[in-house]
Design goal:
mainly alpha, 0% strand
């Protein structure tokens, strides 16, 4: 499938969007869906979690896994 993506006409049209997705994440999907009338706005809501707290939790989990590799 990946090889077909690079050689097909559809793939040639999709590659720029895939590149934007890698650069901008979900925002590009929201913009496309907004332009197609699916979303009323592209404004993103605030995250439901504290990113700093999630980073601390992730660090603690990775540290525990590295200290106790069973």
């Amino acid at each position: 499938f990946a090889a077909d993506l690079y050689t097909s006409e559809r793939g040639n049209r999709l590659l720029p969007l895939i590149n934007y997705e890698r650069l901008y994440g979900v925002a590009i999907y929201k913009e496309v869906l907004y332009r197609r009338g699916v979303f009323a706005t592209t404004v993103a809501r605030a995250p439901l979690f504290d990113p700093a707290e999630e980073q601390r939790r992730l660090t603690a989990l990775v540290t525990t896994l590295l200290e106790n590799p069973t």
